[in-house]
């Protein structure tokens, strides 16, 4: 029985090496700007009435080159109670491509149309300073973490925020699994060998007892 206990322990080590990416749901308020204007004075937008962005930080892997996958779950926002409700794609009847007063003005790609109320993302330092390219999230996508980032920021593409309504719920997961217990590739083979030896010894004891 002791041999079988050792085999079970070895196999449990192998199972512990199976890694899982961090995944969590977040709420983005309709009044949330995509980044702090105080921390990024050169990335000015709006009239300064936005609330803080949704900040994703602890528990996720921000190593350079890792990926974040963002997916829309539910919810809608409005620019006021008379405007249409929209999801992360934004109001497709209201393009704002190239408008300097909107966060989308700072996208690296200004050839792709951007829209009022679309979901916007940015990577930033722990102090909120934006690093790398700003991007439209819309209803989901996968984005690569730039070097030096320790936060992912999410907000809404708008100019006046104070009368916005609603919120969006999104899932966020990092794409670099973490292995809590590194296990040599030969360990499963070693465990199998121990299991076979244990079975032979058990059969020998039964034969001797007869």
From TrEMBL:
Q: Which residues form the signal peptide?
A: 1-21
Keyword set for this entry? Answer: Signal
State the name under which the record lists this protein: PEP-CTERM sorting domain-containing protein
